[in-house]
Design goal:
Elements lengths: L15 E4 L7 H13 L7 E6 L8 H12 L5 E6 L9 H8 L6 H4 L3 E5 L8 E7 L1 H7 L9 E6 L1 H4 L2 E7 L2 E2 L3 E2 L13 H14 L1 H4 L7 H10 L5 E9 L6 E8 L2 H13 L1 E4 L3 E7 L7 H4 L1 H4 L5 E11 L11 H5 L4 H5 L2 H4 L4 H11 L2 E4 L4 E4 L2 E6 L3 H6 L3 E2 L7 H6 L3 E4 L6 E4 L4
Parallel strand pairs: 2-3, 2-7, 3-4, 7-10, 12-20, 13-14, 13-19, 14-17, 17-18
Antiparallel strand pairs: 1-11, 5-6, 8-9, 10-11, 15-16
């Protein structure tokens, strides 16, 4: 696993937490805990930017937003709900309503007084400029992985112009930062490309294989926290840990974006990492329909790569997916390659968006590249059984498979195949990686 710095002692205990990794909370418990915890916070007369995830996160958002609305009613002067897209596609009114719990076009009936918007990362006017973190600080936070480049910090102006930025969302093992949540909802959730590219590339240099599920303050989280320190508003958080494959919760933690995250991170690591005794030769990773392209659906690879044997295969099965990424066409140019492929040809790739380079390495997995011979060797085969055309899949250096040829029942009966339904939620590792 990658190096980390320890979460400060007692930080998690500063959040108001209910539940645990072996607990499944009732809706009433969730409601009452959120209302009570927010009631004790200084929110009267404050304007609030309420930051929520997009539909690529599996979490029962209506059951969280309703008690938040109750707790803020009559206290907050204004509430603007902003969907932290990162660089994902914008949510339509219909999709936002389904995910957040209101009838499209009638949000006022469910959440009176609240306004709902997407993080419009493609518009310059979306952002507030919070200055530059010097290169020497970036070098320190990244444990020396980036040494000569400062980091320009811009963030959605809503979290700057309001008194409070209140994050509400899940915490899960994550390929870039280790454990998601907390300040990650600002960076990359509401940020511009510099922080996204630099933090993702640091994660890629460490590798998803090593990073994913790592507890503590990883180099990437250190960069994210440094950027978040520049946000002037008060940063509060409702961090939840979901029960995988359901709409129930293991826990709810309410505090700051650091204390609530710290409390939830340990629970997420205990509930969302499954350890296998030995490697598997082949994985059939069945993606849910909430992943609309490979950019988001690649989580079905990230969370299974660690248990695949050398020379093995991961099949991403998603007949509903028709494209690599609408928002990131640059991936069609560079394709999917391992980390060393880029590092050893850095002059060729250094000006390509680093976030796309990072995603490319995360999906291709571990491997090597010989700069003298031009030979790339990858640890596992990545196969797409989707509706993406064969020529496009092979052009980006992945293997194609006709989804009609996938026999789930037969693969489940095959002792050499590990079939995972609803892939992308739970991280699988080997016991000797614990």
């Amino acid at each position: 696993m990658t190096e980390t710095t320890t979460v400060p002692p007692g930080l998690a205990e500063q959040a108001a937490t209910i539940g645990g990794p072996e607990v499944v909370l009732t809706d009433q418990q969730v409601h009452d805990h959120i209302v009570a915890a927010l009631a004790g916070m200084d929110l009267d007369g404050k304007s609030i930017a309420l930051v929520v995830p997009d539909g690529t996160r599996s979490v029962p958002m209506p059951g969280l937003l309703r008690p938040v609305h109750e707790a803020l009613r009559g206290r907050a002067t204004k509430v603007t709900v902003v969907v932290a897209l990162g660089t994902h596609a914008a949510m339509s009114e219909e999709a936002m309503g389904r995910f957040l719990g209101f009838e499209p076009g009638r949000s006022e009936e469910t959440y009176p007084g609240w306004t709902f918007v997407n993080h419009e990362w493609w518009k310059k006017e979306t952002f507030a400029d919070l200055g530059v973190i010097p290169a020497e600080e970036v070098a320190r936070y990244s444990s020396g992985r980036l040494t000569d480049r400062p980091m320009h910090v811009i963030v959605n102006r809503l979290v700057v112009e309001n008194d409070v930025a209140l994050v509400v969302g899940p915490v899960l093992p994550h390929e870039v930062v280790g454990i998601s949540g907390g300040n990650k909802y600002f960076f990359p959730g509401l940020s511009g490309h510099d922080v996204i590219d630099m933090s993702h590339w640091v994660g890629a240099l460490i590798s998803s294989f090593e990073m994913i599920g790592t507890k503590g303050i990883t180099p990437v989280r250190a960069l994210i926290n440094a950027a978040a320190d520049r946000i002037p508003s008060e940063k509060l958080c409702v961090s939840v840990v979901t029960e995988a494959g359901t709409d129930r919760l293991h826990s709810v933690s309410v505090g700051t974006t650091e204390t609530a995250w710290a409390a939830a991170a340990g629970i997420a690591a205990a509930s969302h990492i499954t350890y296998l005794d030995k490697p598997v030769k082949r994985v059939l990773s069945i993606l849910p329909t909430m992943y609309e392209d490979i950019w988001t659906g690649a989580k079905g690879f990230y969370k299974l790569e660690p248990v695949v044997a050398e020379g093995g295969e991961v099949i991403l099965y998603a007949p509903h997916i028709t494209e690599i990424s609408t928002m990131h066409p640059g991936l069609l140019k560079i394709g999917y390659h391992n980390r060393d492929y880029y590092v050893k040809q850095w002059e060729k790739f250094k000006d390509h968006p680093w976030g796309e380079l990072a995603h490319s390495t995360h999906l291709r997995g571990m491997g090597t590249y010989d700069a003298e011979t031009g030979e790339e060797r990858n640890r596992v085969t990545v196969t797409l059984a989707t509706s993406i055309p064969r020529e496009q899949v092979e052009a980006v250096n992945l293997k194609w498979m006709d989804p009609a040829d996938v026999d789930i029942a037969a693969m489940e009966a095959d002792p050499d195949t590990f079939v995972v339904h609803n892939a992308g939620e739970v991280l699988y590792r080997l016991k000797d990686q614990a």
